[in-house]
Automatic annotation (TrEMBL):
Residues 55-132 form the POU-specific domain. The keyword Ligase does not apply. Belongs to the POU transcription factor family. Residues 150-207 bind DNA. Residues 27-60 are annotated as: Disordered. It is found in: Nucleus. Residues 41-50 have a biased composition (Low complexity). The chain holds residues 56 to 262 of 269 of the full protein. Keywords: DNA-binding, Homeobox, Nucleus, Transcription, Transcription regulation. Residues 148-207 form the Homeobox domain. GO terms for cellular component: nucleus. This is POU domain protein.
Length: 207
DNA sequence: ATGCATGAGCA
DNA sequence: GCTCATGCATA
């Protein structure tokens, strides 16, 4: 079973009509390890050289300071990360829907890939401006919420097993399918769980 | 805030 | 079957 292809609907409240979006996503173009390249696909890093009133700053410091400023302003507005994610859909930016609390959190803590950060920055920047404008004119929103009973189960890998996985990862971060199967059996875990664990470990390590 | 998971796109 | 962006569930 594979639940939800749900897109919006965030944790706390602020639920609204959902739509299919996702345009910020899937901008990968990997051909070499450790190096990705943004592709002007509509979002984020357009290829403007940017001296003419655009954005696009290859400055990592600017990203960092923006993330920090963003969080600070967001909190002053009394808005949660989940609220921001859901509100993005209201910006009506072509190809931009909502984002999850997780993503907003990761943006603020700079725990997304550089490309992802660069792509999201203009969007969150737009939200921030809109939110501050809205606050100026005292806007209020209705508060409805949806009831959904589609749960998903999250596997929890016990500490001992996790330690083993980390040990394996240290010597071979990219085990073969067979090796993964062997590890899975030794640790009494589903092979897929082990495979995904390695994937996530690599992604995390890259960050 | 973070762990485990999904899915698109590519090789 | 990986990477990458992203999300649900949960610590």
């Amino acid at each position: 079973g594979m639940p939800g292809s749900d897109v919006c609907s965030t944790a706390s409240h602020t639920a609204h009509a959902a739509a299919h979006m996702s345009a910020i996503n899937h901008m990968q173009h990997h051909h070499h390890p450790q190096s990705m390249n943004m592709h002007p696909h509509g979002l984020g890093s357009h290829s403007s050289l940017g001296t003419s009133g655009g954005d696009a700053e290859p400055d990592p410091r600017e990203l960092e300071s923006f993330a920090e400023r963003f969080k600070q302003r967001r909190i002053k507005l009394g808005v949660t990360q989940a609220d921001v994610g859901a509100a993005l859909a209201n910006l009506k930016i072509p190809g931009v829907g909502c984002l999850s609390q997780s993503t907003i959190c990761r943006f603020e803590s700079l725990t997304l890939s550089h490309n992802n950060m660069v792509a999201l920055k203009p969007i969150l920047e737009a939200w921030l401006e809109e939110a501050e404008r809205a606050q100026r004119e005292k806007m209020s929103k209705p508060e409805i919420f949806n009831g959904g009973d589609k749960k998903r189960k999250r596997t929890s890998i016990a500490a001992p097993e996790k330690r083993s996985l980390e040990a394996y990862f240290a010597v071979q971060p990219r085990p073969s399918s067979e090796k993964i199967a062997a590890i899975a059996e030794k640790l009494d875990l589903k092979k897929n769980v082990v495979r995904v664990w390695f994937c996530n470990q690599r992604q995390k390590q890259k960050r």
